[in-house]
């Protein structure tokens, strides 16, 4: 099990790097996170919803993402409510307190999913959540060291040195653990170190003297755009992390212009990984916007998904963003909830997502949305501007639209809608998450945006290739900077449990 001293310490990336490391060595590897709290989710080929991070880790492991890799997914909705997804299907909406009380009932589900993976794979790398030393939550723990204890698994703990105080964080974590859990911790990993490791001096040795736990290695801070992040803390990082042309897979054609792409930072944003492919494009400059003044006149304005569509629509209006959207002269793209907001109306008679039975949309697309109890989770394939496109749907809101669709689906139907703003801009809507990961479709879409803006841009290479290079870099870094013989011994100890 890979635990962390805090959220965003690097558990997900270390887990992914270990998955790739052992897959390279010929093992059948699977990731596992018993409970993930995130609004970034993916759909398996069987139509089950799991956290995006576990789908990414499965890619790192060379395995097909499956529901057993993330049996419990908690999707925050604001106002202390969340949707709980168990084995890929929504169990219901409840308060945080209600979910905390029911967690012990889910322990058997979690242990069964883990046992199933251990029967079918050679190596299973578990990821914890937050910190394993949240003493107020230990009694109902189903994702951290309680799970490792019940499954007889050893653990390592990752600490983020970039935040400062890493030695105190690592020592304090194990000091707060009950004896039975403390004995499971076999090593520390110091993550995100900038500079010369010699500057740590004898810090790791003195830490081991105090708590008896060795440091397995110090991982350097990896520059470059981080993709497939699940943690909302990732929203605080710059959207554009690489200069134009730095991606080795980029089109060598000289870049004449750069597209200005603004993304609305909704309070309850979901699936913000939808914009990751744009971060890899050398012809795109991305930026967050959260009020009318910051919008300006972008070439492309993206309204992403949300887990509380009506509430975020009200927030959008309160910030004057509805007027800014209407005044855009370029292109507006709404994805899932963003698409629903651009329509004429949203109704939720059963209170599936909102206590408000309905709201007027922005009226820029001839589309109406009705929320129902059934949740759609499926993959779709089609063509966008004549190029192959694919993506997955995760929604309770069923959209009925008239007029030309944005995506022509292979089954002869359409997805999304096309309209205009009063500012003379073009409005597009789609229900498909992951649509921009299709390289041809993304290039065609950006080509349309560039044409309207009268700009010439270069294009990046394959997004999937960039993702694989990022994972390979993680695995290379782990192999170089961790004591992998010690990690092997810890892994072998788990196989004896």
TrEMBL record:
SUPFAM superfamilies named among the record's database cross-references: Class I glutamine amidotransferase-like, P-loop containing nucleoside triphosphate hydrolases
Gene3D superfamilies linked to this entry: 3.40.50.880, P-loop containing nucleotide triphosphate hydrolases
PROSITE patterns listed in its UniProt record: GATASE_COBBQ (PS51274)
Coiled coil feature spans: none
Limits of the CobB/CobQ-like glutamine amidotransferase domain: 260-439
Pathway connected to this protein: Cofactor biosynthesis; adenosylcobalamin biosynthesis
Catalytic site: 336, 433
Presence of the UniProt keyword Calcium in the record: no
Keyword Acyltransferase: no
Stored InterPro entries: Class_I_gatase-like, CobQ/CobB/MinD/ParA_Nub-bd_dom, CobQ_GATase1, CobQ_N, CobQ_synth, GATase_3, P-loop_NTPase
Record-annotated CobQ/CobB/MinD/ParA nucleotide binding domain positions: 1-222
Keyword line: Cobalamin biosynthesis, Glutamine amidotransferase
Function: Catalyzes amidations at positions B, D, E, and G on adenosylcobyrinic A,C-diamide. NH(2) groups are provided by glutamine, and one molecule of ATP is hydrogenolyzed for each amidation.
HAMAP family, per database record: CobQ
PANTHER family: COBYRIC ACID SYNTHASE, DETHIOBIOTIN SYNTHETASE
Family in the record: Belongs to the CobB/CobQ family. CobQ subfamily.
Record-given protein name: Cobyric acid synthase
Source lineage: Bacteria, Bacillati, Actinomycetota, Acidimicrobiia, Acidimicrobiales
Gene: cobQ
């Amino acid at each position: 099990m890979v635990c962390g001293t805090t959220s965003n310490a690097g558990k997900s990336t270390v887990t992914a790097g270990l998955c790739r490391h052992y897959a390279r060595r010929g093992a059948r590897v699977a990731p596992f996170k018993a409970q993930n709290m995130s609004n970034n989710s993916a759909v398996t080929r069987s139509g089950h919803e799991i956290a995006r991070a576990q789908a990414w880790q499965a890619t790192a492991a060379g395995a097909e993402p499956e529901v057993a890799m993330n049996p419990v997914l908690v999707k925050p909705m604001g106002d202390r409510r969340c949707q709980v997804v168990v084995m890929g299907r929504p169990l219901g909406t409840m308060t945080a307190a209600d979910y905390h009380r029911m967690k012990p009932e889910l322990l058997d589900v979690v242990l069964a999913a883990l046992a199933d993976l251990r029967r079918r794979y050679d190596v299973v790398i578990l990821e914890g959540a937050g910190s394993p030393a949240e003493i107020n939550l230990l009694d109902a723990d189903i994702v951290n060291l309680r799970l490792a204890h019940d499954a007889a698994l050893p653990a390592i703990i990752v600490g983020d040195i970039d935040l400062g105080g890493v030695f105190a964080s690592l020592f304090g974590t194990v000091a707060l653990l009950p004896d039975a859990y403390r004995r499971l911790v076999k090593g520390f990993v110091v993550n995100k170190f900038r500079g010369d490791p010699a500057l740590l001096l004898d810090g790791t040795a003195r830490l081991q003297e105090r708590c008896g736990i060795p440091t397995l290695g110090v991982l350097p801070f990896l520059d470059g755009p981080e993709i497939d992040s699940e943690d909302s803390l990732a929203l605080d990082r710059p959207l554009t992390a690489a200069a134009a042309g730095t991606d080795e897979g980029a089109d060598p054609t000289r870049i004449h212009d750069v597209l200005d792409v603004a993304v609305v930072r909704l309070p309850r944003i979901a699936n913000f990984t939808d914009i990751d492919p744009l971060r890899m494009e050398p012809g795109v400059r991305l930026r967050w916007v959260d009020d009318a003044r910051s919008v300006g006149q972008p070439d492309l304005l993206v309204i992403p998904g949300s887990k509380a569509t009506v509430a975020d629509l009200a927030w959008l209006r309160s910030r004057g963003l509805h007027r800014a959207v209407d005044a855009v002269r370029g292109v507006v793209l709404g994805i899932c909830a963003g698409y629903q907001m651009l329509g004429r109306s949203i109704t939720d008679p059963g209170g599936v997502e909102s206590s408000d039975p309905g709201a007027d949309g922005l009226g820029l697309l001839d589309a109406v949305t009705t929320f129902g109890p059934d949740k759609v989770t499926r993959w779709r394939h089609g063509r966008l501007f004549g190029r192959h496109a694919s993506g997955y749907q995760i929604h309770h809101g069923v959209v009925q639209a008239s007029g030309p669709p944005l995506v022509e689906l292979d089954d002869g139907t359409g997805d999304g809608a096309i309209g205009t703003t009063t500012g003379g801009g073009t409005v597009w809507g789609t229900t498909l998450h992951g649509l921009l990961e299709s390289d041809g479709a993304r290039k065609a879409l950006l080509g349309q945006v560039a044409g309207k803006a009268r700009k010439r841009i270069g294009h990046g290479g394959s997004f999937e290739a960039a993702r694989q290079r990022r994972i390979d870099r993680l695995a290379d870094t782990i192999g170089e900077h961790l004591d992998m013989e010690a990690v092997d011994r810890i892994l072998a100890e788990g196989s004896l449990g």
